[in-house]
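Record filed below.
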Amino acid sequence: MKPRNLLVSLLVLSASVDLCAPAAAQGLISLIPFAHTRDLYVSDSGDDKVWRLQDLDLDGDYDDAGEFTVFYDDTLGAQILTNNNGIAVGLGGIVYVSDSTTDVITALLDKNGDGDANDSGEHWNWFNGTVGGNPGG
């Protein structure tokens, strides 16, 4: 009986910790400039685009009018995407997109506030893993 009680206590403790996690995450979310809308970035390797999803009305979804826009389109910007399959966002709001075909990580940042990173100076090679690219490549 005693081992069973111990097991139950550990499960309750584990559940308590999980319930506290969202509150702790709220502090981290407030550090990110676009966190008030819980922006989400999606890399579309079929169309070589990066989509920005914003919950503008804060109803918990991204399916209302104006809540999804093209953040980067390689036909409009200078950085070519061929197989963009990984994406991450830094605390400064820079979106990092990896391309497994070209071994490049592209950085995207909407510097002029127009909602995309297609303009000059808003996208650049952050890492180039090809021969002759970054020294660590």
Observations:
- The chain is about 20% helix and 30% strand.
